[in-house]
Fold each of these.
Amino acid sequence: MPPARPVPDLQVRRAADRFVTTAEGRRTHHAFSFGPHYDPANLGFGPLLVANDDTVLPGHGYPEHPHSDVEIVTWVLAGGLRHEDSRGHGGLVVPGTAQRLSAGDGVRHTETCDAGASSEVRFVQMWLRPDEPGGTPTYAVHDAGDALATGEFVPVAGVGTAAPLGTRGAVLHVARPAPGARLRLPDAPAVHVHVATGDVDLEGAGRLGEGDTVRWRGAGGAELRAIGGNAEVLVWALP
């Protein structure tokens, strides 16, 4: 008889319980404490400090603002996000491409939806604590569009990708599973699961809908099943 599987440390947080910030032309749902939204019991999960689900209308966005000592990973779900920073990096980030900005000892940037865009942009932006403070800010993108067509989990930021991180052991995986498809979560000491779109069933957590998240230590490759179509799932494998 196989040994009993250890009981994982699991927490499900529902979309409706997230903090929400609204401003002209944009709306943000926060998975963790952010800005004026403070909860001492919800400051992050391991090195993951921020997971913001943003919607920005054409002609709006975030004017120039500073960052330092943080790894910023942006994943666009729909539309296009215009990035420009004080180090001369810039471009339009679209679905299927992960953007990583290592802020190092300081960088300023803007994030906007072009005024002439045909639709709003929706993206998830995630911040991680780097292993070492300071250093020169760097920028990278990783195009995972072709690999995502497999429906499997694809590493899009972190070791083994074109967007490595200054947080050792952290890797962002993304999947767009077909209806009914069954996938295994990456096996890591901790995982953070974010259902960006659609509905899934996750072993140990049950049914999850758009915006729901799971924080899980000891997941051990739990099974995820897509329910219906349009599912997109973001999973951080964390040290």
Note: Helices lie at 145-148.
Amino acid sequence: MIQKQDSYKIIGIDPGTNILGYAVIEVSGRTLKILTFGVIKLFKEEDQAAKLKEIFLQVQEIIETYLPQQMAIEAPFFGKNVQSMLKLGRAQGVAIAAAITMGLEIHEYSPKKIKQSVTGNGNASKEQVSAMLERILKVKIEAKYNDATDALATAYCHYNQGASLSPGEKKLSGWKAYLSLNPEKIKKADKK
């Protein structure tokens, strides 16, 4: 039988090469608590390699401080500027590498999926996402940068995808899947 943990933590990341958003939430049963959220500013770094190194080091520092078990990260979206998308993909890859080296489970979500999870509308504005997070989490979100709110939305989206699942626990797709993971239930049912 799968043992559930009482609580676990999720780090949400909104990747970027100038500003990277992050958020860490703690899940206890159905209760969510924001542990931290903010941005990593990378403007002062002059070249791309220095920015990527800083992302790696700072994401690892956040992980070491808050000890999340899972990372939810926003997938890059396809825009008209291919160079921007490549830079964004590199930032995402470095953040993922930092989490992998720390032993976290990694989960990626599209911007549309994140908005859908938070507001019910995949085309919601950033303001609508922020307002809904305030209602859901019962906090006032005063983020100077949307990137921090986007990271919080990404962590919340991941929570929503497995709402009551703890790290390592599997989502089941039906009765057969449940029984395949819990064969003792078949024996008990046969005895009745």
Note: The radius of gyration is 18 Å.
